[in-house]
Amino acid sequence: MQRFLISLVVMFCIVNVANCQLRKLMEEPDTVIVNAKVVTKPFVNKKGKVYLNMPELYLVVDSVSLFVKGCNSCVSKHDLMQYKDSVITLKIVLRRGLWDTNNPYEQSRIGKYVNVLKILSD
Fold first, then answer.
1. Which residues lie below 8 Å from residue 42, measured CB to CB, with a gap of 6+?
2. What is the DSSP letter of 70?
3. Least packed by Cβ within 10 Å: which of 63, 78, 116, 122?
């Protein structure tokens, strides 16, 4: 009986580890090259208050606005601001997760965002 329980626990652990590794592979981000327009939008908090002095960067690709998350990007927001209202070619990583922080214990907006890896042409 004891061997059976130990075998059952070991089998459960192996299946669980394999499942986690498969899930991690499926969540790998997509790296793509896009032609995108760099735009800014004012920051809007949870209550709907608009902060005009805190612009956020977005890339508009095929009429879809994608939030640019500054941390984890190889290109700074300051460098992208030089191309404001221009269409440029970028290498980006599409992700889903926290926008405002990397700490899951802090309050943050959640959704799709991009990290800019490289500016290919302007």
1. 50, 51, 52, 54, 55, 56
2. S
3. 63
